Amino acid sequence: MNEHADVTGTDCDVVVIIPLYRQPALFSEAIASVLAQQGAPACRIIVVLDGCVYRQSLDSARAWARAHAPQVVVLAQPNRGLAAARNAGIRFALQAWPGCRAMFFLDADNRIGPHFLRRAWQAMSAAAPEVGWIYPDFDLFGIGGAWSTAGTHDLLQHLTENICDAAALVRREVCEAGVVFDESLRAGFEDWDFFLRAASAGFRGAHLPQAGFTYRRRPESMLTEARRDRAALLSTLRSRHRSLYAPRAVLGLEAREAPRFALFEPDAALACLDPEAPPRADAPASLIRRLAAAHRAPGREHAPALAVFAAAGVLPALRRSGLLRGILAHAERLLESAPVCGVTLGASPDGQIGLRPDHQPKVDDAALVVLRSATLAKAAGAGGSLAALPARGMTAWLTGPVPPPGGAVALAQATARGFAAALRDLPPSRIWRPDGRIARAEAAGRVARSALRAWPLLPLAPQTDRRDIAFMTPVFGMGGVERVLCCLAAEMRRAGWRTHLVVTDAETIARPPAEAFDGIVLLPGFDAERHGGGRNAYAGAATSLLPEDSEETEALLGLLAPMQAVLVTHAFAGHALVGRLRRFGIRTACALHLSERGAFGEPIGNPQTALAYQHAYDLFVAHSRELGLWCAASGVPEEAVLTLENAPGYPAGTEGVAAAVAGRRMPREGRRLRALFLGRLDRQKGPDRLAAIMAATRDAVDWRVVGRAVLDEPPALPVDPEPPVEDPAALDALYAWADALVLPSRFEGVPLTVLEAQRMGCVPVATDVGGVAEAVTHGEDGLLVPNGPDGEVIRGMTAALLRLAGDDGLRRALAEAAATRGARRGWDRAAAALLEALAPAEALRPLLSPTPAEAVGA
To answer: CB within 8 A of 508, min separation 6: which ones?
Structure first.
């Protein structure tokens, strides 16, 4: 019902909307405070009677409308709640007064001072177009008190609590953008939801100092009821604003509004979220002053939550290693149990990189020291000393030049002394309104912990032109599986992705090729890969024992949550987490390389375990056609299986390949056949079979064995094994030396060694297991021996090698065909297929849309 239908003739600047329900007497105070405005813009008032049960409310509203026609309009509707009443006022205002530029929402039991609308209107008129609403401080009456909301509007802070009352002047464009109150939220938080909707539409708020808004506070009210239901209401709110609470959105806000780290080097300083992002250096004194100001007023001012002190050359060294982001995330976690975290650096003696917990850290030797900014204040009060503070620590092992130990503590202590001086220099502050908001520096962490249950988030600043993928694996030793990961990662980097290696069960790893990964995350002191069978077994396969809720699980999720895709390769921890990662909108993929066999030939291992988690994976990536068919036969939807063709595990030198292939065309000129075994000396690869084959062919074949045992005790061999080789040039030299690559394996995928050997014209002689036949055609580009009892395999392998040794024409024909086939394989096609399959979920659509008749089963 519109009590005054003829109200559209006179336009206005501001419309005040007052919902009225069960507040007949207090409402008069509210409307009187609006009518008493001085110097205000042209104003109209809409009173929305929301099905009030009190006759007095209707009489009071009509009396005010008659007394102040046409300025006051009364709308009546059945009771639909506060949000619906405000929306009714919005709709009426937009239609009735096209010149209206803003709306102000006033609850019927609150009041505004005589200059509120004038000052709010002036502030909005002067503000940038993206400022969608002007909001006041809270001055309470009834139960007295005050609450400051001063400072710039901080959306991260707004995600943790509602820092704006509905009593805000809202720009018309906000409502025209479709931002309205959620009418299903009748138990509370509807104003918080409204402002988050406005923020999602690209608007931000602006604080109005000395506004003159007074909020009636009573011990029993709608606000009190909402607080009782806070947990349920928060869950509802976050589910409605998943895009704002998504990990990458939180990180994007953190990068813009509240950088996490204050990085101090001897002659430079930087406030940033992502330590790998292009540096924007600041003067150390300026950053110290910001830290002091935020310490004085943490809810209003921002400075980074964590202070990082690095000796000369340390940050560049850690950036080169790829470990810097992960180290800072782990340091943040360690600061929960000690006020200081020290990181020492060591030179790796074996060319590996690593990160290990240091249970008795010597902070004076630390090359990197991390503190909370609050600890910096404590150190400032102690004359800058950190000596008395407990510490946690890590040791990072690096390749290449390593800066000398120490230096970080002295820098931290000098900064603490500067911090103390900056605090003394701050002007006196008399703040009579306390600030109950969470500290701006802590807002991102609060969202990560409470909304995402993933903390700390890896400090990775999202980039609009690049997507992020994590390759998750328990170990990383540059074997066949690891080389596949490196090749895919390098191709994805060329396609514009950022690639991250996450190793879940090894604190020390082989250094990957420089072109493979943008960052490396190791897990010092974690026990992420624990797993078991028994009651936890799925169809006899072991499953993860990582708890659903624990600090360790929360930390692992935080390291992975910033990604847009995660590819899990043999990692139990990955299986345990993908369901939750998928809820973050992350595309989840499981990579399978081979189907293992136990001592009795029974299928065991990664593919069987992966089936237990099939529901949480968007994609199963099979590195052989055999495995792809197995996945489909085991219940994985065919559309969710991607079969990739493996290629050589490293780029070969063009001249070396050409020379090797040309040499294969030449006769051996009386020299013996050269055979190479290259791989792990574990039962899977058949080294026990190899010993017998070598003994049976010693009169016709020269042998080299390259590799070491990783899982099993190696057998005695007729020649001493050479150490494993990873360098591409050294691998090319091995393949160029050999006439035949011998693989007497019990099970395989599609071995990279076969593909690399073929590229060099080296003939594979292998058991016909797994996906080997997908890379080798018997009698055309290699020789295959049926797998079976050991004696039969040994006899078959021996016969094949002696045949090659005695027929040089056959060797040359097979070598020529092998080189031709090997030249056709490349990782670019595999990576392109994977990128297409990892398209965002919203890009996927049902194949068929049922008609209404089909939908009801007609």
So the answer is: 348, 352, 353, 354, 356, 397
Output the furthest CA–CA distance in the chain (Å, rounded): 118
CA distance 715 to 189: 70
User: What does the domain layout of the chain look like in residue ranges?
Assistant: 14-244, 255-452, 468-643, 654-824
664-702: string of b/e by CB count within 10 Å (b at 16+)?
Answer: beeeeeeeebbbbbbbbbbbbbbbbbbbbbbebbeeebb
pLDDT in the model for residue 314: 96
Residue 751 contacts residue 772 (beta carbons within 8 Å): yes
User: Does residue 461 sit in helix, strand or coil?
Assistant: coil
Q: Whats the size of the chain, residue-wise?
A: 858
Mean pLDDT (whole number) for 628-649: 94
Looking up tokens 């990189």, which residue turns up? 353
- The per-residue pLDDT for range 470-513, each reduced to its tens digit, is 999 999 998 889 999 999 999 999 999 999 999 999 999 999 99
Please name every residue paired with 448 in a beta bridge, in sequence order, or none if there are none.
none
Query: What crossing angle do the helices spanning 752-759 and 808-823 adopt, rounded to 10°?
Result: 110
Spell out the CATH class of 654-824: alpha beta
Residue 727, Cβ neighbours under 10 Å: how many? 9
Structure tokens at 292: 């002091």
As a whole number of angstroms, the distance between CA 734 and CA 728 comes to 10
Taking 50 as the threshold, does the pLDDT of residue 748 lie above it?
Answer: yes
Query: In CATH terms, is domain 14-244 a member of 3.40.50.2000?
Result: no
User: Are 468-643 and 654-824 equal in CATH topology?
Assistant: yes
SS3 318: helix
> Which distant-in-sequence residues (6+ apart) come within 8 Å of 246 by Cβ?
584, 585
pLDDT for position 841 = 59
Q: Would you say 490 and 588 are in contact if contact means Cβ atoms under 8 Å apart?
A: no
- DSSP label at residue 643: E
Q: pLDDT tens for residues 764-787?
A: 999 999 999 999 999 999 999 999
Q: Is 98 exposed, middle or buried (0-12, 13-18, 19+ CB in 10 A)?
A: exposed
Q: Is the Cβ–Cβ distance between 661 and 735 less than 8 Å?
A: no
Tokens of 434: 């306390």
Question: What does the DSSP 8-state code read for residue 143?
Answer: T
Q: Residue 685 and residue 688: Cα distance in Å, rounded?
A: 9
Q: Cα separation of 58 and 116, whole Å?
A: 27
Question: What mean pLDDT value characterizes the chain?
Answer: 90
Give the tokens for residue 541: 């396969």
Q: What is the rounded distance in angstroms from the CA atom of residue 81 to the CA atom of residue 343?
A: 56
Pair type for strands 261-265 and 268-272: antiparallel
Evaluate whether 563 touches 450 at the Cβ level (below 8 Å): no
As given in the structure block, the two tokens for residue 728 are 């591409």
d(CA 207, CA 148): 10
3-state SS track over 682-728 = CHHHCHHHHHHHHHHCCCCEEEEEECCCCCCCCCCCCCCCECCCCCH
Rounded to an integer, what distance in angstroms lies between the CA atom of residue 208 and that of residue 563?
A: 38
Alpha helices in 81-144 (DSSP H): 82-96, 116-126
Say how many C-beta atoms besides its own lie within 10 A of residue 533's C-beta.
Answer: 12
* Helix H or strand E segment including 765: strand 763-768
pLDDT tens-digit series, residues 604-626: 789 999 999 999 999 999 999 99
CATH architecture assigned to 468-643? 3-Layer(aba) Sandwich (3.40)
Which tokens hold the place of 669?
A: 């000129």
List Cα–Cα distances, 669 to 453, 665, 672, 699, 700, in angstroms: 69, 12, 9, 17, 14
Q: How far is Cα 420 from Cα 87, in angstroms, rounded to an integer?
A: 52
Instruction: Please tell me whether residue 110 adopts helix, strand or coil conformation.
Output: coil
- Other Cβ atoms less than 10 A from the Cβ of 55: the count is 9
CA–CA separation, 269 and 251 (whole Å): 21
CB 388 within 8 A of CB 382: yes
CA distance 545 to 224: 42
